[in-house]
Amino acid sequence: MKIYTRQGDCGHTALMDGAEIPKCDICCELLGTLDELNSHMGLVRAGCSDERHRSFINDQQIRIMTVSAYIADNCRDEYLIREDDVTELETKIGEMQALYPKQSELVIPGGTGYSAEIDIARAVARRTERVMVAFHDGKPVSDVVLKYMNRLSDYLFVYARFVELSVYSRLPLYVKDNVPYFGSEREGDQFDDDDITFMTSGGGFARRWESRGLGNEYKNAVYMDLCRQAANVGLPVLDIASGPNLGLIPDICFFDKNVMVTATDACPTIAGKWNEFMEIYEPDMNFRSASFNVADMPLKSDSIDVLTSNIGFSSLRYAGDGNMMGVNEAYRVLKPGGYVFAIENEFEDFAVVKKVFDLWGRENWYGQNKPTWRERFESAGFYIEMERHHLRQTENGDWELGRAAESFGIRIAMNYKAYILRKQ
Description:
By secondary structure, the protein is an alpha/beta fold. The chain has 14 helices and 11 strands.
């Protein structure tokens, strides 16, 4: 079949309903601009590395083709875009806006090559909307189609800003109350309703937050000095596997309440409940939370200034061969010269740990005789600026293993080490 018919050689074309119009008609201008927009959307889709988002962009291309058919067939209702299509765009816009800092200044396109391509598509979408409004003056267009075209350009603007400004490398499965969730429900400690009640209405979160800056056997001089140094860097902090005690964040904020902090945890409930708590207790703080697994951080390489951990690396149930997944991920996401401030632990006697797991009837996720934290950090490429440690025993309130050991009358000696690391 030939691609050409010669029927348009005289400057006219036929629409889907059979009507012939000159190619300079506003209808042809609109159809051509929709085609141009869809071509740019194809370029945006081709450059997208997130499979779910690429599928979403493809869906919008199909809807642009639906709009084109609607215009070419005398605006018949059977081609109408649905209100749900507009809502879907608005949902995606909200998800992305939760993943990058708020902006108050004007935007100059070109932050990255890919965001510039998205901005071109956005500009073409705006032009398409203007041509559609001009067409609408002579031939009424459905309100929902007009709304969709307006929202599509909004989506492209936000997507370009997400690409430029967000530290996240992929979109979450969903965002709820500004907390992104990346599907880590099967990883790490997951807490039941009784745990959550204790932390929330039982006052656990409040007691932890109010105790910031106060020392105890665990939060000794070594611990507090590490938090002070993390605060003194004056850069945004991302805390990994923050847990019910919010990692190092409360005590870092004791030294500098204005520092930008993000708490993360594999347990989505913990991430959401801490966010609720902070919105009530510290509404003016620059605090965010997210739910993802330390061994698979949904973050861009070379994007994080400061990463903190209060047993965050140690708490990984599975860290791969050599127990390096979390450490390697931390090195990957840090900016060159970026910092890690970490408190991690090492068992003094793995035989005692094995005994607790045997009595508990659960698989020993800590394994046997792991490399030291110094060996793991240096293997990943970190330069160790500081290493200090103190010995203590596990307690009932430490974490799952501590509670199990206490129930069997066993005390596990732990060597807690404080590190300051730099990415070389």
